Amino acid sequence: MTDQFSARGSSAPSPVLLAGQVLEWSLGSENLNSPAGSADQEVRRMSLPRCVGGLRPDIMTSAERMEAVMVGLRPDRVPFNLFGAGFSARNVGYPVEVVYTDPQKCLRAQLWTGEQFGCEPTTGTGYASYGAYEFGGEIRMPRSRWESAPSIVRPAVESEEDLEKLDLPDVKDAGMIPTLMGISKLQERLGLPISCGISGDPATNAANMVDVNRFCRWMVKKPELAHRALRLSTDHIIQAWDYWIETFGAERVSVGVYVTIGANQIMSPKQFEEFVIPYQVELHDRIRDTGIKGAMFHICGEQNLNLPMIRELYLGTRQTPFMLSFGHEVDLDRAIEMFPDSIICGNVEPQIIQNGTPQRVYEVTRIAIEKGKSAPRGFILMTGCDLPPMAPGYNVWTMRKAVSDFGFYD
Ligand SMILES: [Zn+2]
C-alpha cells in the first residue's frame, strides 16, 4: 500500500495538466469493468495530497501514516478521518444519495474531499438503516436537506408470521449489496484499501428488519422473536463477509462492526448483555478466525454503561488491528484507559461541526487530539458519528487546522 502511494505521488502531473484532464474525465461516462489506466486512475492520482498553504508540512504520506498506526508505530501526526461520505458528495456538488447508489461518484467525492481538506482517504460507505431493504423491505434515498442517509419506508417484517416465514436473502443480490460490492471492486482497481460496507450490527439490522418499535417490544414481551431476527441478521452478516473474503481475500478486507441500537438511549445495559453481546461475540470471533485485515468498531452514542461488557470482547484475545470509534458521549480519557491495546478513534460531536462556530469546532477538536495523543496503541481523529452532509466546509477545514497545530507527535 505504502509503495503504491509513494510511487504515484512522485510522478504526479502538474496541476495545470490535471485541470484539463479532470474536465475531460468528468464529461465521460466510465464503465466499471474497463481495464486499469482509465479515467478513474486519473481521479486517484489528482487526489494525492499536495502542500496546502498555511499548514505544517506532513512528513509521511496518508498511506504511510495509516500503515504506521495499523502496525503500532508512531506516525508523524494524528491521522484525520472524515467519516463523511454524504458530506463529501454534497461538498463536490453531487446529491447525497450517490454515495448509496453510484460507486464511482461515491469514491470520487471522498477522494476529492479528502484531498481538499488534507484528510486520510476513506472511500467506502455504509448506512445505519441496513437490514430492512436487504431482507425485502423498502428504503428511501435521502432527497431533502433534512435527510442525511437512507431511511426505512417499510420494514421487511410486519407481523410474527412474516418473521416465521422469513429466510436469508441471496447474499449477492440483497438490497444494497450490489452497490457495496461495486464500491469494493473499484477500490481494488485503484489500489485502495478494500472496505466491506455491510453493517456489522446484528441488533440494529434486526431492528431495521422488523421495525425498531416492534423489536423493542419483542425484547421485553417476546424475546424469542427478537432472537430469531438476530439469528437471521447475524447469519446474513457472516455470509456477506464470506462473499467479500472469497472475492478479495481476507488479508485485504476491512469490515465495520457497530452497536448503534445498543446505545443506552434505546436499550438498557441488561438488554445489551442479552441481545447485543452474544452476537457481537460471534462477529468478533469470525474476524479473528478468518484473519480479516482490519476492523473498525463504531461504539455509537451513549455507551458508558456498556463499556465493561464491550471490554470483555477483547480480554484475553489476540488483537487484530481493531479500531474503536467512540461518540462524544464517551470521554476519550476513559476510552483510552479501558482499551489500552486498541487504536482509539473519535470523537468530535457532529452537531457542533454542523451548528457550532469555527472557534468552538477548533476548541473541541483540540481537546480530542490532546486526549487522543496519549493512547498507547494509537489514535485517529474522527467525528463521533457520521459527519452531517450539511456541515459547513469551513468547520471541517477548522478541524484540519487543529490537526496541524496540535496533532504532531513531537
Ligand atoms: Zn454513530
**Main β-sheet: number of strands, strand sense, barrel status?**
7 strands, parallel
* Structural class by helix and strand composition: alpha/beta
Top CATH class: Alpha Beta
Spatial separation of the terminal alpha carbons? 26 Å
Under the CATH scheme, which architecture would be assigned?
Answer: Alpha-Beta Barrel
Report on the structure:
- This protein has helices at residues 2-10, 15-27, 39-46, 62-71, 85-91, 98-101, 103-117, 160-165, 177-189, 202-210, 212-221, 223-248, 269-275, 277-290, 307-312, 332-338, 350-355, 358-372, 393-406; strands at residues 80-81, 138-140, 151-154, 194-200, 253-258, 294-299, 322-326, 343-348, 379-383.
- The chain has 410 residues and is α/β, with parallel strands linked by helices.
- The protein has a single domain (75-406), classed as TIM Barrel (Alpha-Beta Barrel).
- Strand 6, helix 15 and strand 7 (322-326) form a beta-alpha-beta unit.
- The longest helix is centred in the middle third of the chain and has 26 residues, at 223-248.
- The chain is globular.
- The chain starts with a helix and ends with a helix.
- Residues 1-32 have low confidence and may be disordered.
- It binds zinc ion.
- Zinc ion (ZN) binds next to loops.
Throw out a few tags for this protein.
TIM Barrel, 7-stranded parallel sheet, alpha/beta, binds zinc ion, two-stranded antiparallel sheet, disordered N terminus, 410 residues
